[in-house]
Design goal:
single chain, 208 residues, alpha/beta, 7-stranded mixed beta sheet, 37% helix, globular
Amino acid sequence: MELILKYFPELTERQISQFEKLETLYQDWNLKINVVSRKDIDELYLRHVLHSLAIAKVLKFKAGSKILDVGTGGGFPGVPLAILFPECSFHLVDSIAKKLKVVHEVVEGAELTNVNTTHSRVEDIKGTYDFIVSRAVAAMPTFVHWVKGKIAKEQNHDLKNGILYLKGGDLNEELKAYKTASIYNLNDFYTESFFETKKVVHLPLKWK
């Protein structure tokens, strides 16, 4: 928890309490349904929570924003971002039902009221969102195809509506077709060695 406060010192008491609850909730549920690797569960705040919150270092979501988390798995990056931005709504989607069961229980346990979950392929999700977030569930061309037409027309942020994608490694080849993509290195925000090769990619998308 000290790690989260190191980089996000302005948290309210409620947010601190919600972040603190995550460790017990994930440890308990991970014993029943394995959504986080054994190695990672011991470093939950570094490898999952703080990693998810890197998106907030790139962009502060404004109140009323709608965010879609595609392939949320155990609830990352959606759950930590939902705690950080309580006035935004988060829609967490995954095609694997047992993972969403864990997410649902974590959301209830952390008393999050701004999250809903759907067991579905993202292609079947209706509606539009200001931003679509994810942690490296597919190569960018595949991901762009999945979320086509799901970006809202109205712009409310300094960054244009689109994808905020947590990725690692050399992305030159994968992103060479996307001239408007911006890459943010996480070691510009965090000092821990875990983040040395990790990045947030922002890719603006047209609304239709």
